[in-house]
Each structure stands twice: as structure tokens, then as C-alpha cells.
Amino acid sequence: MPMAVEVVRARGHPNIRATHPTTFEITREAHLTPRGDCIIAVRADKAARDLSTAFKRAARREEALIRITIEVPSRGLREVVLARGHPALPFEHPTDMVVRRSGFICPRTIAIRANKAARDLSRSLIKALRDPGTEVIVRLEVL
Question: For position 19, which CATH number holds?
Fold first, then answer.
């Protein structure tokens, strides 16, 4: 049973490439240039600083395991990423949430040591996320 859960709703964008080898990002921003190769969704209804106090507290436990489910319900697509929390996660960024393969932490980071980055996500999911009409639901669970 999860200790804390957050649900983030976002949209697709024609410039989503999802080719970054070490991170993926969800942003509140509506505009995306082709250079944003780690971004998988835009127009999110939450960013790192908007996550609940309960979620932040649970994710800051040394042993925190975070399950990130990226889902496009309209197309029956789902991807699960496993990552870790850390006591130093600041959860301060006003527009972005970044999940990293590495242990690097900055205000945008919400999870580290992930088992997948943008380029590892299924190409059928990424193709769906290139449609600006696509709604994506990102479920963050601290286990």
C-alpha cells in the first residue's frame, strides 16, 4: 500500500522527442522546443513545489521507493518507472518535475536512480504524447 500518492494531469505536444538518456521531465509550461528532449508532457497541473507535504515527507525517507506510472488512458498505454527518494530532495521548482537515472539533485528533481529515462519509454507511448490532444496521467506513489 502506498505511503503517499500524487496524480498529475498533463498534455502531449508535437515537439516531444523523449530521447534523453538520463532524465525525463514533466512541465507546467505550454511551449516546448525540439531541444527539450527529456520532456514527456506539458501543461501539467502540478510541479515539484505543488506536491503535497505528505508526499514530500515520504519521498525524503532514505529507503523511499517511488513508482511513477505514466498513462494515456484514451489509448490504453501505460509505462511504469521505479526510482528512489532521498532526504535532500527540495521539491522547490515552480514549473518542472524531473526524474533522473543518476543521483543528482536540484530544485526540479522529484526522484533519483530511476530504472528508465525518456529514451527508454515505449515509442508507442511517446508517439501518443506527440498529439497535443492527448491527456497523460502521471501517478506518483511512494511505496
Answer: 2.60.120.630
3-state secondary structure the chain: CCCEEEEEEEECCCCCCCCCCCEEEEECCCCCCCCCCCEEEECCCCCHHHCCHHHHHHHCCCCCEEEEEEEEHHHCEEEEEEEECCCCCCCCCCCEEEEECCCCCCCCEEEECCCCCHHHCCHHHHHHHCCCCCEEEEEEEEC
How many C-beta atoms lie closer than 10 Å to residue 80's C-beta?
Answer: 12
pLDDT at 1: 81
Q: Give per-residue pLDDT as tens, 44-99.
A: 999 999 999 999 999 999 999 999 999 999 999 999 999 999 999 999 999 999 99
How far is the first Cα of the chain from the last one, in angstroms, to the nearest whole number?
7
pLDDT of residue 13: 97
Domain membership of residue 114 as a residue range: 4-142
- For the chain, what is the domain count? 1
Position 12 pLDDT exceeds 90: yes
